[in-house]
Amino acid sequence: MKVETKPARCKECGLCKANCPKGAISFSEHTNAAGYHPAVINDELCIACGICYTVCPDGVFHVLGKEA
Amino acid sequence: MATKERKVPALVDKPMDFCPGCGHGVVSRLIMEALEELDQLDNIIFPIGVGCSSNLGAGLECDRLHCCHGRAGAVATGMKRVNPDVLVVSYQGDGDAYNIGIAETFNAAYRNEDITVIVINNTNFGMTGGQMSLTTMEGQKTSTSVHGRDCSITGYPIRFPEMVAREFPGAAYAARGTVTSPAQINKLKQYIKNALEAQMNHEGYSIVEVLSPCPVNWGMTPIKAMERIEKELIPYYPIGEFKKRGENQK
């Protein structure tokens, strides 16, 4: 896993999906406690660029990072 | 390939009650990231305005004071004069800083208080249901300008950072940023960092205004709201630094 998510915080605003350069983000079929469909990352497409972290207003994403 | 870890700073890592797609969450995180990079996380106090910015009262884990409506500029003055070495960052919306508190905001800038002011400009009073504010665009429909704002009777939208840069020679830094794209967000973070560094070096008053979307009151999706900022707001409210650090020494 390259990017960890906190589904409980997601408000399904769609900014991460609109800005993801690889189209790796979609929304879950399940809802969280607030009734939103939280963002889900396709780990195979993800390049850990951190753009979702940058644009997310609700702190859903945590880019784990790794050494070379 | 090495990738950098990116994590929300612990002092702001709590769920907040902002609407989906609101820009407040990004800006509060950027302030904390800038403070983390400047190693000032334990040397900060926030006078917080009334409005959507009040949500920070519950979302932050550091010293903060919820001021009377519009009075954050005056409260920040007191905080800074008593504790000159503590960073004082007032966090307000456009309705709080300009409509209700223009006297306090203006006078703090006029006296060149050594504080940093962050104003979130979403062109309306977001929390109370989207009423017209001083920054509402000409023709924009709000709950108190139902036929669109008529500037011939209400005056024109205010551009405060430009006024600070032009009229107050002592002020250290004035800029405006936005949160519409990753590139703009990174630029905004640099503006906020410049403003905080100006305060750390006791250079004088610093202000950063942020054009922020209000999807719920604008009646748009978060993505359409970002497009509105790019197309309608930026031509009137230009992005950039109006006064840079160090210009006073020349």
Describe the structure in your own words.
The complex is a heterodimer of chains A (68) and B (250). In chain A, the strands form 2 sheets. Chain A has a two-stranded antiparallel ribbon with strand order 1-4. The mean pLDDT of chain A is 93. The longest helix of chain A has 5 residues, at 15-19. Chain A has one domain (3-59): Alpha-Beta Plaits (2-Layer Sandwich), CATH 3.30.70. Chain A has helices spanning 15-19, 51-55; strands at residues 3-5, 25-27, 39-41, 61-63. With 68 residues, chain A is α+β, with helices and mostly antiparallel strands. Chain B has one domain (19-126, 136-244): 3-Layer(aba) Sandwich (Rossmann fold). Chain B is α/β, with parallel strands linked by helices and 250 residues long. Chain B has a 7-stranded mixed β-sheet with strand order 2-1-3-4-6-5-7, with helices on both faces. Chain B is built from 10 helices and 7 strands. The mean pLDDT of chain B is 94. Chain B has helices at 24-37, 56-59, 72-82, 94-100, 102-110, 151-154, 160-167, 182-200, 215-218, 222-236; strands spanning 44-48, 63-66, 87-93, 116-121, 173-178, 206-211, 240-243. In chain B, α3 (72-82) runs parallel beside α5.
